[in-house]
Design goal:
alpha+beta, Alpha-Beta Plaits, 2 domains, 3-stranded antiparallel sheet, two-stranded antiparallel ribbon, 46% helix
């Protein structure tokens, strides 16, 4: 029998299973991507699960897990001492474009002096850690 019109209905067990699966994906994403700001250590899955339950975060079945996890991180930051782990990036550009790189970094409140800069054969390599949200901004500008 094929459903031609209307909505497919889920039973309680199917809905609970899907909710549990999305919740576990959210917890695992947060546990992998967040750290304690002072010690820079990852949180355990159990502690993230407890924290999410404490803030009464509601899992939505019609939304993917990643956007919900990012939303949940924002809610967790209001109550707990938790931050997204920094990304390690390596920027490689011709040496003659160093001024452009410096202006882009300055625009995003970053400094070329923080990090490791190596110049070899007219190529500038700059390695540093950045907040994850800055990756797309830097990638588009550079």
């Amino acid at each position: 029998m094929i459903l031609e019109k209307g909505d497919l209905q889920f039973g309680d067990k199917e809905r609970e299973s899907q909710s549990s699966s999305i919740f576990n994906d959210i917890v695992n994403f947060i546990a992998e991507k967040c750290v304690h700001p002072e010690s820079k250590r990852l949180f355990s899955v159990a502690s993230i699960t407890q924290a999410i339950q404490d803030i009464h975060f509601t899992v939505k079945l019609d939304k993917p897990a990643k956007p919900q996890a990012l939303e949940c991180i924002k809610e967790l930051q209001k109550k707990y001492n938790i931050v997204r782990a920094e990304m390690k990036v390596k920027i490689t550009i011709p040496l003659k474009k160093q001024e452009i790189l410096e202006s882009i970094l300055e625009k995003n409140n970053l400094d070329l002096k923080n990090g490791e800069t190596v110049i070899k054969e007219e190529i500038l390599e700059h390695k540093r850690c950045i907040e994850p949200y800055l990756f797309r901004v830097l990638n588009e500008d550079i």
